[in-house]
Amino acid sequence: MEFQDYSWLATLYEKFGVPHPKLSFGIACLIGGIVFTGVWWMVGADYRRQEAIQNRASNFNERLDALSRRIDALPAIQPDDVKHREIEESVRKVVNFPNAVNDVAAPKTIVESLAADQSPLILFDTLIRYDQDVLKSVPNSGPMLHDFVERYYKFQTDEGQLESELLGHIGRMVRVRFTAGWQIYLRYTLLRFSGLSKDQIISQGTFLNYDITWDDAERLYTQISSDHDTVEKVKHLFSEYNGFGEQIKKLKV
Question: Does this model's pTM top 0.85?
Answer without folding.
Answer: no
